[in-house]
TrEMBL record:
<keyword id="KW-1133">Transmembrane helix</keyword>
<feature type="transmembrane region" description="Helical">
    <location>
        <begin position="319"/>
        <end position="339"/>
    </location>
</feature>
<protein>
    <submittedName>
        <fullName>ABC transporter permease</fullName>
    </submittedName>
</protein>
<feature type="transmembrane region" description="Helical">
    <location>
        <begin position="240"/>
        <end position="261"/>
    </location>
</feature>
<feature type="domain" description="ABC-2 type transporter transmembrane">
    <location>
        <begin position="16"/>
        <end position="386"/>
    </location>
</feature>
<keyword id="KW-0812">Transmembrane</keyword>
<dbReference type="Pfam" id="PF12698">
    <property type="entry name" value="ABC2_membrane_3"/>
</dbReference>
<dbReference type="InterPro" id="IPR013525">
    <property type="entry name" value="ABC2_TM"/>
</dbReference>
<feature type="transmembrane region" description="Helical">
    <location>
        <begin position="369"/>
        <end position="393"/>
    </location>
</feature>
<keyword id="KW-0472">Membrane</keyword>
<dbReference type="GO" id="GO:0140359">
    <property type="term" value="F:ABC-type transporter activity"/>
</dbReference>
<feature type="transmembrane region" description="Helical">
    <location>
        <begin position="20"/>
        <end position="40"/>
    </location>
</feature>
<dbReference type="GO" id="GO:0016020">
    <property type="term" value="C:membrane"/>
</dbReference>
<feature type="transmembrane region" description="Helical">
    <location>
        <begin position="281"/>
        <end position="307"/>
    </location>
</feature>
Length: 401
């Protein structure tokens, strides 16, 4: 078994593509991809805020101050609406044809004296699929006028400040967040980290798995290996440990990469909130995250090797393995659902329990007793899958399809 393991490891280390996915991807590309996505996203949002938008006003004569307020917005450009457009259907068709970005209709009862003239209902015609930035700007303008008109109404009613507050908000819920800052931040981002870790571990094990089964079939070296005096179960174990080694290495590098970037961010390369959150995650938490990934990688290795043994070619093996990405995503999604916590039956659900545990470790609320359920269930499943892989490898009809 160890001879097979040593042989496969030597071949693995010669494969630059595999080494790239095991080491370079977690250390370099992982933070670059996330940082790049955040940078591009911020630029897109900034561009959407500064892009010029054309608009038309119906009933502008009822409120010159509202019309002027819209004109004062730098990215808004007022255009004249054709005189023959006056019905709701015609306005809708005009906006839908992209002749104008949006249309505002001001009602006849528009007045500063809302007590006398009633509630003001502005009608906004826009494409609901976009222009969210426009809506936010309009809401800001409407809020300003609403506050002003409320004050006018309160003055007419001769209400003091306390009476005004009571009228505006008769009932209020005052929240007291008993969670500390780490727990709050961990709840927000803790569910995403297992997704990236699982994907990188799976990717790190996928390439060597494809090569150790289907790849050997294509090269014709599998037959040579089978006629050696090594027992087949030892051949499978040697290949299994090689794939697991690649996956564990990816897991280790991933966790170390997160730890390194955590240290960098906590020393001043991020804002104060991120610094406090990152510096609160201890070394023990990172060690436990890595240890929990070991049986997960064993599950990946057993499944990947089984598929690779069954496949006729390297390309076919890749086709079988690609859907596993979606299979892995589902347990992580379960871990992000509200009400799913690391207790009861969820502590025994494979992959979901690990994702939940990683989330709890990041939050700092881990119940360490649940580690027995996590390691126990994951190890049992990994052992069962490995036993099936050995049985699968002993079938001649599978090896020589």
């Amino acid at each position: 078994m160890w001879l097979v393991f040593q042989k496969e490891i030597k071949e693995l280390l010669r494969d630059r593509k595999t080494l790239f996915f095991m080491i370079a991807l977690p250390i370099l590309l992982f933070p670059l991809i996330i940082g790049g996505a955040i940078y591009v996203g911020s630029k897109v949002v900034e561009g959407a805020k500064t892009e010029e938008r054309s608009f038309a006003i119906i009933g502008g004569e009822y409120s010159s101050e509202f019309t002027q307020k819209l004109n004062d917005v730098e990215q808004f450009k007022l255009v004249e609406l054709p005189a023959d457009i006056d019905t709701k259907e015609e306005i809708t068709a005009y906006v839908k044809a992209d002749n104008v970005d949006f249309v505002i209709e001001i009602p006849e009862n528009y007045s500063r004296d809302v007590l006398a003239n009633g509630k003001i209902v502005l009608t906004l015609y826009r494409n609901q699929a976009g222009l969210a930035v426009v809506e936010s700007v309009l809401n800001k303008i409407v809020d300003e006028f609403s506050e002003e008109y409320q004050n006018v109404a309160f003055e007419n009613l001769t209400l003091n400040e306390e009476q005004q507050k009571s009228l505006l908000e008769p009932i209020k819920i005052e929240q007291v967040n008993v969670a500390d800052e780490r727990e709050t931040q961990g709840e927000n981002i803790g569910g995403l980290i297992p997704y990236f870790i699982f994907m990188l571990c799976l990717q790190g094990a996928m390439l060597p798995a494809s090569d150790l089964g289907a790849g050997e079939k294509e090269r014709g070296t599998l037959e040579t290996l089978l006629i050696t005096p090594i027992e087949r179960n030892k051949i499978v174990l040697g290949k299994f440990f090689t794939i697991a080694f690649a996956g564990v290495t990816s897991a280790l590098v991933t966790v170390l990469s997160i730890a390194i970037w955590t240290t960098v961010l906590s020393q001043g390369a991020a804002n104060e909130v991120v610094m406090k959150f990152m510096s609160s995650i201890g070394a023990i938490d990172f060690i436990l995250v890595f240890l929990m990934l070991v049986p997960v990688v064993a599950i990946f290795a057993a499944v990947l090797l089984t598929l690779s043994i069954y496949a006729r070619s390297f390309k076919e093996a890749q086709g079988y393995m690609t859907p596993l990405v979606f299979v892995v995503i589902i347990p992580v999604i379960f871990a992000m659902l509200p009400g799913v916590e690391l207790k009861g039956i969820w502590a025994w659900v494979p992959l979901t329990n690990v994702a939940l545990a990683i989330k709890e470790l990041i939050k700092g609320t881990m119940d360490y007793v649940q580690l027995f359920a996590i390691f126990g269930s994951t190890a049992i499943i990994a052992g069962g899958l490995l036993a099936f892989c050995i049985h699968w490898f002993k079938q001649e009809k599978v090896l020589f399809r």
